[in-house]
DNA sequence: CTTGACCTTCCCACGATGGTAAACCCTAAG
DNA sequence: CTTAGGGTTTACCATCGTGGGAAGGTCAAG
């Protein structure tokens, strides 16, 4: 099978198939004499596995582990379960973070007249300094991006 | 104010301040004779506004619009509201997509013994061909990770 | 043999952020 | 005045998964 057919069959784009090979997620495909990659049914199967794992939000790194367990006939289901649980925990963290955002925004929107007047509680809130710091303590984590603080500087001056 | 002090005051890293300037989100800062960027209180204020909008998940592109409205004294609050609603809709889409993932995963985990035996419904499900497609329709959304990337693959099957 | 649909590799882009390095600037202490 | 240490500047690289495109080779049908 050519990469195009493999792509259709596995629902993984040709671009991604090459990428997965490049980063070592899948072994290098066999080549025809002229350099075309060829794929077997087993290869398609693996690609489809990857595709489904991606659809469940697993990162490529996580899929590396999943593939390892998949191929390991003596695996322990506890290992798979642990991977899945960790992933769920990560998803839950992100969901929670985004829910927090939407809740805040929905509360603000609720207070916004949404008419021709310029007054808007949304802008006012963004404008204001740090009010409503319910947690004075530095809460580590729970926020998706901006993992590292800006703190490199010392307060020497 | 130096960029370091501006960073502390606005809670935006110096790196990001330069980046925002580079991409035109904020105007070029004034410079001292020796080339140091200097910031006024108004600049800090704007940076803080940006920071707060980022914390609510607005993209830089969206913040560009928010800043425009912020500066437009004759704005209509309806415009702000619309921006916020669109953003909420996007957040809701991603939340929904991730909830779908966790629901699926939690159901699978529930069925996984998690012991020393190799049998695992999670792997089996990933392995299997397309079953349980409750929606035969092309689900274009399904934006997994923190993606902005149009995961709308062609899928010319 | 030509044409068009494939395939190959290589490079670029996205978004927002951090890291590093080399060079320069500033200030306070000696 | 000199020096040390920290702040600043630019420039480039990396992330992560994906797509786009160019330049050129291959293949199969007409």
TrEMBL record, chains A, B:
Intracellular or extracellular location(s): Cytoplasm
GO cellular component, one term: cytoplasm
Region Disordered, residue ranges: 121-157
Biased composition (Basic residues): 145-157
Record key words, sorted: Cytoplasm, DNA-binding, Transcription, Transcription regulation
GO biological process: positive regulation of DNA-templated transcription
InterPro entries per record: CueR, DNA-bd_dom_put_sf, MerR-type_HTH_dom, MerR_fam, Tscrpt_reg_MerR_DNA-bd
PROSITE patterns associated with the record: HTH_MERR_2
SMART domains hit by this protein: HTH_MERR
Source taxon at top rank: Bacteria
Main location: cytoplasm
Protein name: Cu(I)-responsive transcriptional regulator
Species of origin: Marinobacter fuscus
Taxon lineage: Bacteria, Pseudomonadati, Pseudomonadota, Gammaproteobacteria, Pseudomonadales
């Amino acid at each position: 099978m050519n990469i195009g057919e493999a792509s259709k069959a596995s629902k993984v784009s040709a671009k991604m198939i090459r990428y997965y090979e490049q980063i070592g997620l899948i072994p290098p495909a066999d080549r025809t004499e002229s350099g075309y990659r060829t794929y077997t049914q087993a290869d398609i199967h693996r690609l489809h596995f990857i595709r489904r794992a991606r659809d469940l939000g697993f990162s490529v790194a996580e899929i590396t582990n999943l593939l390892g367990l998949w191929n390991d006939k003596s695996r322990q289901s506890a290992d798979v379960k642990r991977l899945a649980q960790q992933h769920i925990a990560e998803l839950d963290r992100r969901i929670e973070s985004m829910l927090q955002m939407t809740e805040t925004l929905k509360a603000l929107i609720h207070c916004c007249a949404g008419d021709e007047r310029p007054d808007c509680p949304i802008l006012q809130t963004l404008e204001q300094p740090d009010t409503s710091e319910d947690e004075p303590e530095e809460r580590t984590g729970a926020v998706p991006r901006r993992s590292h603080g800006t703190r490199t500087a010392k307060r020497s001056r």
